[in-house]
Amino acid sequence: MIVVSDTSPLRALLKIQHLHLLPSRYQNILVPHAVMKELNLFFGGGKDLSQILNSLWVEIGIIKNKNEVELLLNDLDPGEAEAIVLAKENNASLILIDEASGRSKAQSFGLNVPEFLEFYLKQRR
Questions:
Q1: Which helix (H) or strand (E) holds 42?
Q2: Which pTM does this prediction carry?
Q3: Strand 94-96 to strand 3-5: parallel, antiparallel, or no bridges (unpaired)?
Q4: What is the DSSP string of 62-102?
Q5: Fewest beta carbons within 10 Å, which of 9, 16, 68, 86?
Q6: CATH classification of 3-124, choosing from 3.40.190.10, 3.40.50.1010, 3.40.50.300, 3.65.10.20?
Q7: Contact by Cβ (8 Å): 112, 90
Q8: Residue ranges per structural domain of the chain
Q9: pLDDT tens figures, 37-91
Q10: Residue closest to 119 by CA, chosen among 1, 18, 7, 17
Q11: Contacts by 108-111 with C-beta closer than 8 Å and gap 24+?
């Protein structure tokens, strides 16, 4: 199962110290470079990102279709745009993305977008 994540789900789980839920549910999470960049900018050295950077369950994915990313940047931020393209290019089983515009765009491409809060609550049970 290929799972791609945008920035917000990772950031939220890091903030509440529940990042361990992702590797307990999914063997591997694919993230684009823009997501890692956004995480670094958001936490700005104040948060230890080693849980992500040094983990065996996170893989940094390379985007092939830069033109499609550029088109999506008209409506989305870089992390969302790259995550959607990465999910499409890798035939991802699902994409973790929580912003309404990103979710809507991902669904318009036929990507499986679980409700993030629902996903989180299921993992805590």
A1: helix 33-43
A2: 0.86
A3: parallel
A4: PPS-HHHHHHHTTTS-HHHHHHHHHHHHTT-SEEE--SHHH
A5: 16
A6: 3.40.50.1010
A7: no
A8: 3-124
A9: 888 777 665 556 666 766 778 899 999 999 999 999 999 999 999 999 999 999 9
A10: 18
A11: 109/84, 111/84, 111/87
80, 105 in Cβ contact below 8 A?
Answer: yes
Helix, coil or strand: residue 104: helix
**39 neighbors 66 (Cβ within 8 angstroms):** no
CA–CA distances in Å: residue 73 to residues 78, 85, 114: 6, 11, 22
Q: Residue 4: is its pLDDT beyond 90? A: yes
Among residues 99, 96, 118, the alpha carbon closest in space to that of 10 is found at 96
Beta carbons of 29 and 6 less than 8 angstroms apart = no
Decide: helix, strand or coil at residue 17: coil
Amino acid at 78: P
